[in-house]
Amino acid sequence: MVSRAEKFPLGNEEQYKKASVVVKWLMDIIRAVKGEEKYHCEPFKEGLARLTDRFREMRAPVEKAVDIMKEKMTTWWAAEEEKKEKEAAKIEADNRKRLEKAKEPARVKIKETPDAPVKSVGATTAVKHWTYKVVDEAKVPRAYLQLNKGTIMGAIRQGKREIAGLEIYQEIGITTR
Fold first, then answer.
1. Domain regions of the chain by residue span
2. Average pLDDT over residues 49-76
């Protein structure tokens, strides 16, 4: 079929009319195949959807528990890290004072700063990653903004024909009933 479609001559109105009949016939074949597909596959899709829902229901409370535990662990880790940072700052300040007051700085015993909180325990690891939150959308550089195609096409369908920075035009498409 593909090779015949590629070879189909289309250079005048009569051939265009024949092409329309051929496209209608091809679309009827597609509809018939889709109907068969639906007839045979729909029961499986419905069963799969029910199974997926059931497993989702089974997972939900476990996922909720994981979220709660991770939130608690994150809160603890952040508080512990902040506490150790403050403790380290005090020790460093004390070390500086003692070094400044000492007549022989080389003999001053330097106190060790505390280690950071444990990052890995068993299968869990505390990791830091960069993220963001919008505080003033008007100040966000344009390079980080994205066009909303749905909103633009909705405006065009409602008759808007001029939008700054966009060229609005019509494309030809062929539809078949």
1. 2-157
2. 94
